[in-house]
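Researcher: Here's a chain I'd like modeled. Treat it as a single chain, no partners, no ligands.
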Amino acid sequence: MPCPQPLSLRPPQDRVYTFTDGRSAFYLGSTHSQSSTAHHGWNVAETHFLYDYRIIAGGQPLDRGAAREIVFQPQLLRRSYPCGITETFFLVDGENAFCVELSGSFKSAEFELFTAANSEKISYGAQRYIFIAGKMLGARVSKTDGGARLTVAVSDDKSLAQAIISRVERNAAALLESRTRRIAHTAGPCAFSCSGEKINDALSWSRISLDSLVMRGGMTGIWAGLPWFNNFWGRDTFISLPGAALVNGDFKTAREMLLNFAARRLPDAGSLWHGRIPNVITGGKAYYNTADANGWFVLSALKYLRYRGDEGFAREIFPAVSLAIEGPLSKGVGADFLLRHGDAETWMDAAGADGPWTPRGNRAVEIQALWHGALLAGAEIALRLEEREKSVKWKLLAGEVRKSFAKLFIRPEGGLFDHINADDTPDSQLRPNQIFAAVIGAGCGLPSVIPRELAENTARIVAEKLTFPYGVLSLSPDDENFHPWHEHETYRHKDEAYHNGAIWTWLAGAVIEALCAHGQSGLAFDLFAEEARQIMEDGCLGGFSELVEPFARPGQARPRPCGAVNQAWSLAEFQRSFAESFAGWRPFAGKNSVELAPSLPPQLDYLAARLPLGEMTFELAVERAGSKIIVALECQECEREVSVSCSNAWFSGIISPSGKKLCFEYEAAPPAAEKWRFARPVFNPNWKSLRPY
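Model: Modeled as a single isolated chain. Structure tokens:
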């Protein structure tokens, strides 16, 4: 997939942007203003070195707000000023360095660097070296044929920083070209498109932004989000892995991430966290304070096998899979076979001085759905390896989990309780986590922890009570503890609102999956299209925010994005939604088979995707023709017979080296008997969060 079309902005637009070098560094800036927060600037290996820089040409500072045009590409940002000066900014791959190049007509040029300690002005031919956090930050301004170049580097000492700057100055053009090629190549060999052009732009940019968070410095992993989460989180990694690596066939990256976390599992048999996959790996250390990373890890391992069919990997990963199940079995499972955990060991983990803001111990609904899914996924992997005793044991345990789940979690008024307290009483707050009980396992061909009828009821409740047209709420607005704004520092710390109202963009992936599974593809696409709009028009250029505030602030037209400006699992779920929910791709490489279950929404005339099965790549096209849906699947480099089935059409067929294409059609499903609707945003001035303590 080539790099997407550049994004162009003119004043008064002002948006943030991020770049990474694919290893350990990132830069966060604003297109039309100087840095406004301490989180902006340049960060290398989890150390913040620089807040911003300013250009002074001919003795006058260049005003970013006056820049007549900003052009943003995956590899660089370019500003054009009314005075005729053009500024080009880019990170240098693999050198812990960045460049700012000036071209145009100017008599002199200076650069002012803003660090935590002070600011430094550097003019033609000058250089500065600043000791920061045990490292040496170096900067030099050199003349070029077109004007001037600022080169900034960081290394262990002055001589190494000088050497980096010299290399970059000599090879700046080649380094930028290499960066451009690297981004274009690693953006992914599989392409998605549809009849909605704005959707296509978002699909392209989200893929690029997601790949920018896949880092390969020290170990291969996915940064959870920028600017705060430039490290590797277990749950975030394995929620993100399908959309970040599997649907585009980047199996090498997926394999490395799975094995990297497997190698860091907690082996201490005396610990209550025995067998856990790390919650976070940061600063070279692993921390294990999460109950859900294991479930996402085991399910990701099975999904990798479904996509790739790498039986050697199955044997390599199995000890970690086994420990991820047996460790909790020995330490954290009660008489009801459900997994116990602490108040802040789910993804709703924000805590303050007085403890968790959203305590969800000791049996959260999604933790039990993940536990059930992990048992079934582990049983399938065990069976592949003829570990029959473990396979049978884990399947039987999954059955016991289903029984206890049915006994404890079903709400009399419909849907599921969010969690069960330590005293066995259910929590009455209405939250979206129940949606995972309806979908976990489906992408791997496994049954969910609840039957289909209850899954449909749960999906409808989440859609109609917890989903606004622009995202999924973390708490029902009918709850007195609901927060309409994430940041309301006059009365509340923002972490209090973090999981008590704020829209989490990654949750849309599970909601879209459930809606498509229950005949509501049109509603699913409404949410997907709104996500695409947010990616292209709001917040970070080409990125996707961690959160959206539930309600617009007074005087604002839309709710604003907040939290991390670019979040991996949000981008990944957007990608996965297209491939697995709308295109309906269900590969099973171990059996050389594909099951198709496309959900072409009424808003689209067609969709197309290039998708992997093992080492083969398939071209899928789904098109509407009157009352019929026409499906074409082709593999030009088919290596063996692949069986293809489509549950929508009761169709089955074979693609083989001699017959590389299948086409079939079926009657489009009639409109759902009852169309579901998203919740209507209604502001309540009486929420407790709007009053002082």
